[in-house]
Design a protein that fits this description.
The chain has 286 residues and is α/β, with parallel strands linked by helices. It has two domains: 178 residues, NAD(P)-binding Rossmann-like Domain (Rossmann fold); 79 residues, N-(1-d-carboxylethyl)-l-norvaline Dehydrogenase, domain 2. 48% of the residues lie in helices and 14% in strands. Helix 7 links the parallel strand 7 and strand 8. Helix 1 packs across helix 2. The longest helix has 20 residues. The chain is globular.
Length: 286
């Protein structure tokens, strides 16, 4: 990292699966980062996962010991939102995929850090509706990162009708500094990535439900036949069956397209607590 970061001070709200990864890549790019979570346990887990990711990077020859120490030195944890964002140039929200929660968290951040640019890491919710809760909606962009954040190269930037082009351009440059390939899409249900990914995932689940092929063979078809890095059913396990079901319901409703409607077997698995990797069982055993 040689260039001064576009946003030298970054606050990441939410230390879960995505939040800790966003904090890591921002710190690796030279930003001073505050990782915030209302749960002390979640915050501790997030910080520990960052350290573990960096240790794996060293073992694989992708991170030096010096880079590890410098990255960790740039990250602090905090349980209080107002204190975490008070000096931030950019606040990235990465709380659970619930519209009211995201609106509430970003409104609180905007009040505590009126000069900061704002970003939401939503994978499918309306950035326009999130922005409606803000005193300066023009400062908000969608920054849709992908899991695991420190490995995946894509960053999907989402602009709503009121987004200031200056903030969108700054977000694009920032994404480049994080080492990401950036695509820019307008606010539309599912954006580009979730809309295509969920359509493929739901069809794969329907094929599984109908007994067309095993989960392994459906996935193998896409990996070997279409060069996908991971099949749609294994990806559903990695993302979480409950998460994908919720996104599918949202897209089916917003787009009026039954292709996104979660199949019966998906609803039954979620009801039984089979959520994928995080529960130990989904379409695969973990």
């Amino acid at each position: 990292m040689t260039d001064t970061p576009v946003f030298p001070r970054v606050a990441v709200l939410g230390a879960g699966t995505m939040g800790h990864g966003i904090a890591q890549v921002a710190a690796m790019a030279g930003c001073e980062v505050v990782l915030q979570d209302v749960s002390p346990e979640q915050l501790d887990r997030g910080l520990a996962r960052i350290a573990a990711n960096l240790d794996k990077g060293i073992a694989r020859g992708k991170v030096t010991a010096e880079q590890r120490e410098a990255t960790l030195a740039r990250i602090t944890g905090d349980g209080e939102l107002a204190r975490a964002v008070e000096d931030a140039d950019l606040v990235v929200e990465s709380v659970p995929e619930k519209l009211d929660l995201k609106r509430e968290v970003l409104a609180a951040a905007a009040a505590a850090a009126p000069g900061a640019a704002l970003a939401t890491n939503t994978s499918s919710l309306s950035v326009t509706r999130i922005a409606e809760a803000l005193p300066h909606p023009e400062k908000l962009v969608g920054m849709h990162f992908f899991n695991p954040v420190h490995v995946m190269k894509l960053l999907e930037l989402v602009h709503h009708p009121g987004t200031d082009p200056e903030y969108l351009d700054a977000a694009r440059r920032f994404g480049g500094q994080l080492g990401k390939e950036v695509i820019v899409v307008r606010d539309s249900p599912g954006f580009a990535t979730s809309r295509l990914g969920i359509a493929l995932g739901m069809e794969a689940i329907r094929m599984f439900e109908e007994g067309v092929a095993s989960a392994e063979d459906i996935d193998r078809a896409m990996v070997l036949g279409y060069r996908h890095p991971v099949g749609p059913l294994k990806l559903t396990d990695l993302v979480g069956l409950d998460v994908r079901m919720a996104i599918g319901e949202y897209l089916a409703r917003e787009l009026g397209n039954p292709a996104f409607e979660p199949p019966r077997v998906l609803r039954e698995m979620v009801a039984a607590g089979k959520l994928g990797q995080k529960s130990g069982e989904g379409f695969y055993r973990w």
